[in-house]
Amino acid sequence: MLNSLSSELDVMRPSMLESGLEVIAYNANRKSTDLLLFEAGNIYRKEGDQYIQEAQLALYVTGEAQTAAWNHKAVKADIYFLKGLVQNLIRQCGISNTAMSVTGNGISWKWKNQPLCSITAVSTEKLQSFDIKQDVYFGVIEWALWLKAMAAQQIKFSGIPKFPAVQRDLALVLDQSIAYHQVQQVTDKLKLQGLQSYGLFDVFESEKLGADKKSLALNFTFQLQDRTLTDEETEALMAQLIAAYKKDLQAEIRG
User: Fold this and answer.
1) What three-state secondary structure class fits 82?
2) Residues 55 and 137 reside in one and the same domain
3) Residue at 2 is within a domain
4) Are residues 147 and 191 in the same domain?
5) What's the pTM?
6) What CA–CA distance (Å, rounded) separates 16 from 1?
7) Distance from CA of residue 62 to its chain's centroid?
8) Tens digit of pLDDT for each residue in 116-167?
9) Which residue range(s) make up the domain with 117?
10) Are 147 and 173 in a shared domain?
11) If I label 250, which of 31, 48, 179, 194 is the partner at 20 to 30 A Cα–Cα?
C-alpha cells in the first residue's frame, strides 16, 4: 500500500494464515501452547487491474484440545478435531446440502458447487518460518457464501407449549444382545402423539435379573400443545410402549 502508516501495514494480506501464526508464535513463546483461536477479517486478491476484497472467518487449532484430568488422558488436537468443529458450525447454522471432500492434507466443503470452507494442516516449512515447534491446523470459512447458505434455509419453529409436561419412567429387562438403538427403533416406529422426548438414564446388570440379562431404565416426556394430558391418556400411551417392547424385543417390565 502507498503511504502506509508503518512498514508492518504496507501489504494487503492475501491470506489470514500468517496473522494467526504470529499470534500462535507469540503465545507459544510464553508457554501458552494449547490454543483454539478465530479471526474475522478480509483478504485481498488481484484480478486484472481490480483488487477484490473478501471476508473470511479463520480458525486456528494447536496443542491439546482437551487437557488431562483424573478420568481421562489429554487429547491432542488434530485435523479431525477441527473437522468436527466445522461440521458442528454447519449443523448449528442450519446449512444443508453441503458436499465434503478430502483434498491432499486437507478437507473442504462446498455449497451449491461453490467453495464454502476448507481446513488443512499447516506445512512444516511454514511453521519453521514462524519458529513454531508444534502442529497447527487452519480453517477458512468464506463468510459471504456462508451467510448466503444460512439465509437459504427455511427455519421452522413452534411456540412453547402452555400446558405442563408429564414424566414417566420405565425399566425394561432385555437380553444382553439387544442394543439401545433397537429400543429407539421400536419407540420411534410407534409415532405416538404427545411423546415429546425419551432417553436412557440407567443400565443395571445383576445375576438377580437372570442369565445374560440387563435392565434399561427409560424416561419419557409427554406433552400436548392444546391441553393437558389426563392420567388415563398417559397410561394408555405407556401401555402402547410396553406392548411394543414385549412384542418386538421380548422385554420384561421390571417392577
Assistant:
1) helix
2) yes
3) no
4) no
5) 0.61
6) 17
7) 19
8) 999 999 999 999 999 999 999 999 999 999 999 999 987 777 778 889 999 9
9) 7-151
10) no
11) 194
